[in-house]
Write a structure and sequence with these properties.
heterodimer, A: mainly alpha, MetI-like fold, 2 domains, B: mainly alpha, membrane (chain B), ABC transporter, membrane spanning protein (chain B), transmembrane helix (chain B)
């Protein structure tokens, strides 16, 4: 130990003698890295504490009855057995909300894919100008907040539910496709830019494949990772959506959580925690997919 | 959609081949362009129905009287003390939470990147949690804070038993409380926005700075911060827009009081049949579009500057 520090000192002395060029002696750099890692640890610790404390509080809140102070797993048992009677809560609203939200996820993803994928592929091959126009339109919902959109959607949905469709919450999918569009667009655009679509199409066309065949047998298999990540992010957005559903008076998971929160906050907090966890799992999966995508691209 | 491509197929097949020679090429190109446009029609038709139409309805509604005539009278309500104070509160909360969010989130993303493996578990987990909290939290974030420092919150109980101090149960709906709740999605949002920017800092820059005799302070003030500044400013503007348009968390926290613009829109929408409220929701929404559009334009302008370093 002593010896090594002595060598370091001599090296330092040598490099100091080496001139006024300003090259840092190595132990100073080591000190900087040490200092950096301390700062790094402190910053991360504080940030993560701020992010995790409310989540931990949520967990504790579901386990400890706020008024009596008794500890029990009753809210979790109620959720997993589907019977909230022991807590005096009616869970039908919650099941209804979850059912609607899951159905909305499926329908929204299908419409989004049908609308975006063929359009984006064709435009990517044929026209740069149209591609830019589509990018502009698809990312526009980031600029128009949902709370603004819902003011204009009100009359449209009144007309839709009275004259064309019904008041069934499933029709919220039309609005949700717009909400997920910016996220889905980015995910698909990443995939399109990472493969050479034009060559693929020209090659398969010159080998005699029809357009549908090119699309389903060549392009889709090459794009499946971005299609999957677009779908995942859309699912996460739809599961977390509250603004449009609540202001249009439709029931979905978040509206149900809010209503249940008025009568039994423990169960709704437990369910929120589950939903957040599900979101994290979805996004970690998304991250792994994009990682795999990058690897295959680099492997080429 | 696929049917459209299939129909388009034969026509495209004729022109896409290498045989499209000079005599028919202009005609062919026109047909091809027409075909391309036809394929994009469903996309544009859909966005016209569910994105353009609602926006147009909001804008027209803001200038419309009860019987459909043109008026500017709706905008009078925008300058009533109630509305003005909602705008001031909204903007204050957005600015405060964005400042805290950009600074803390920026530092956190720096700490996540520097000296860590590019795809470490820590970074993966933090960015996934951040995306969930930043984009999909909504009502659930309100529950998290009610469970923490609400009337029966765990934090409230702990503070009471440990120090004997009772946290004001209305603290959450006060301005500092609201800023804290908003920071809970602003900091994660900053982390996801800013991670790529920190990734673009190359260690070689620091080495170059050091070998030229610069110290840490000089590196930060002369090299790193000037490069990051435009990205930092545009991230701040994005955070502002996100806080300004956030609705779900605030709506779940206060069911009655309309202290923020989005909550005021909610109130106006519920009382739409009231003749006094004619066009009020639309006017508020229109004002929000203007504010967010200005912020987004600024952010685009700043990002263009940042593009010089990419």
């Amino acid at each position: 130990m002593n010896e090594t520090s002595a060598t370091v000192a001599t090296v330092a002395a040598k490099s100091a003698m080496a001139g006024e060029t300003g090259t840092k002696p190595p132990q100073l750099r080591a000190a900087r890295i040490r200092k950096q890692s301390i700062i790094k640890f402190v910053i991360l610790f504080i940030t993560l504490a701020f992010l995790f404390v409310p989540l931990i509080a949520m967990l504790v809140f579901t386990l400890r009855h706020p008024l009596s102070g008794r500890w029990s797993a009753a809210p979790w048992i109620a959720i997993f057995t589907g019977n909230g009677e022991s807590l005096g809560a009616d869970l039908t609203v919650l099941w209804q909300g979850i059912g609607t939200s899951l159905a909305l996820c499926a329908v929204t993803v299908v419409i989004m894919l049908l609308l975006m994928v063929p359009t984006m592929v064709i435009v990517h091959i044929r026209s740069k100008a149209l591609e830019r126009a589509i990018e502009w339109v698809a990312t526009l919902p980031l600029t128009i907040p949902a709370i603004v959109l819902v003011v204009g959607l009100g009359p449209i949905y009144r007309w839709l539910s009275a004259d064309v469709l019904s008041t069934n919450p499933i029709w919220l999918c039309f609005a949700y496709v717009i909400l997920v569009m910016p996220f889905a667009f980015r995910a698909i655009a990443v995939g399109l830019n990472s493969i050479d679509v034009k060559t693929l199409v020209e090659a398969s066309r010159s080998l005699g494949a029809s357009w549908p065949k090119v699309f389903f047998r060549v392009i889709i298999p090459n794009l499946w990772q971005s299609i999957l990540s677009a779908s995942f992010i859309s699912i996460a957005v739809v599961l977390g959506e509250y603004t449009v559903a609540s202001l249009l008076g439709r029931m979905n998971l978040q509206v149900a959580l809010y209503q249940l929160g008025q009568s039994n906050s423990q169960i709704s907090t437990a369910m929120s925690l589950l939903a957040l966890l599900f979101g994290v799992v979805l996004l970690v999966a998304l991250d792994l997919i994009s990682d795999a995508m990058r690897k295959t691209r680099e492997g080429k | 959609m696929t049917a459209a491509i299939a129909q388009n197929g034969p026509a495209a097949a004729k022109v896409a081949g290498p045989s499209a020679n000079s005599s028919s090429s202009t005609l062919a190109r026109h047909r091809q362009e027409l075909g391309t446009f036809a394929v994009t029609l469903p996309f544009f038709a859909y966005t016209a129905c569910f994105l353009l139409a609602p926006t147009v309805i909001v804008v027209i509604g803001a200038f419309q009287t009860r019987d459909g005539g043109f008026t500017l009278a709706n905008f009078n309500k925008l300058f009533e003390p109630n509305t003005l104070s909602a705008f001031v509160t909204s903007i204050l909360v957005s600015i405060a939470s964005s400042v805290i969010g950009t600074v803390v989130g920026g530092l956190a993303s720096y700490a996540l990147v520097i000296g860590a493996k590019p795809n470490g578990l820590m970074r993966r987990l933090v960015s996934a949690i951040s995306s969930v909290l930043a984009q999909f939290g909504g009502v659930m974030l309100a529950f998290a804070f009610i469970a923490t420092i609400g009337i029966n919150g765990i934090g409230t109980m702990l503070i009471k038993t440990l120090t004997g101090f009772t946290v004001n149960p209305n603290w959450l709906s006060s301005l500092p409380g609201l800023v804290t709740v908003y920071c809970y999605f602003q900091i994660p949002l900053m982390i996801i926005i800013f991670l790529p920017a920190v990734d673009s800092i190359r260690p070689q820059w620091r080495e170059a700075c050091e070998s030229l005799g610069g110290n840490t302070f000089q590196y930060w003030t002369r090299v790193a911060l000037p490069i990051l500044a435009p990205r930092f400013i545009s991230a701040f503007l994005l955070l502002f827009a996100s806080a300004f348009s956030a609705y779900a968390t605030a709506a779940a926290l206060f069911s009655q009081r309309s202290i923020l613009v989005p909550l005021m829109i909610q109130g106006a929408m519920r009382n739409e049949m009231d003749p006094n409220q004619q066009g009020f929701a639309q006017v508020l929404a229109f004002a929000m579009i203007i504010v967010v559009a200005i912020v987004m334009l600024l952010s685009h302008a700043v990002e263009k500057r940042a593009g010089r370093w990419q």
